[in-house]
Amino acid sequence: MQLLNNCLKNNHLSNLSNFINALFKQNCLLCASQLHSSLANNHALCEACLKDLPWHPKTSCPQCGLASDGNICGSCISSPPDFDATYSVFLYAYPVDAMMQRYKYGSMLNLGHTFGQLLNEKTKLGSVDLIIPMPMHPARIKERGFNQAHEITKVLTKNHTEKLDFKSKLDHKSVIRQKLTPPQASLPLKERVKNIKGAFAVNGDLTGKRIAIVDDVMTTGASLNELAKMLKKAGATHVECWVIARALPHK
Ligand SMILES: [Zn+2]
Ligand SMILES: [Zn+2]
């Protein structure tokens, strides 16, 4: 963990030569140790770094992903969200939070491959009809240069173990982000539901579809819930949240 702390602190991975190294020689993205060939092209993380990461516990509420004894939590029973299940790879804690910032703001873009691969291992692509990356407003895509959820979804549907073609399930056309809203992370938790209301427009008929929404971080779940609500209005029967990291909101 010390090595990993140093590398995140020093930000040496944004250095071009390390990036090229990691890309071609398949060194661990976090500690730069050389990977065994069996791990190359897979997560691009060594076993020691993988083991140290804050994995999302199995004893979580299957619907919202928050802490529980493995059964549906009290809050999902008393006020059920519009989505039916949540699958998360990690908890949003150090060093995943630092990795996510590096990925989203462009200094470690190859982490998108790692995240997509790990999400692939966590989810069953065959269990849904469509996989929709959380849409970003065109102005935000222009600002950032890419939609992080879309990039993760591309890897998720391409690298698979079941040898089936899931690329056709990737759907980035059925939903658009029609309202340019302030970033959810910039707002107090209570204002996020209001901020995201009416942000999405669904095109077309999703009758009977089972859908997974892919997002990077799930905090209050307000964006995922609003999108799930819209998808169900358009006919979807089942909506799951597939996320890289689940934050445990502060009350
Ligand atoms: Zn490592
Ligand atoms: Zn719950």
Structural commentary:
Helices cover 34% and strands 14% of the residues. Helix 6 (111-122) packs across helix 8. It has helices spanning 2-10, 16-25, 47-52, 74-78, 96-104, 111-122, 138-144, 148-158, 192-196, 222-233, and strands spanning 85-91, 130-133, 175-177, 200-202, 210-218, 238-246. The chain is α/β, with parallel strands linked by helices. The longest helix has 12 residues, at 111-122. It folds into 2 domains: 1-52, no CATH class; 57-246, Rossmann fold (3-Layer(aba) Sandwich), CATH 3.40.50. The protein is built from 10 helices and 6 strands; from the N terminus they run H-H-H-H-E-H-H-E-H-H-E-H-E-E-H-E. The strands form 2 sheets. Strands 1-6-5-2 form a 4-stranded parallel beta sheet. The structure holds zinc ion (ZN) (2 copies). Residues 28, 30-31, 33, 45-46, 48-49 line the site of one zinc ion.
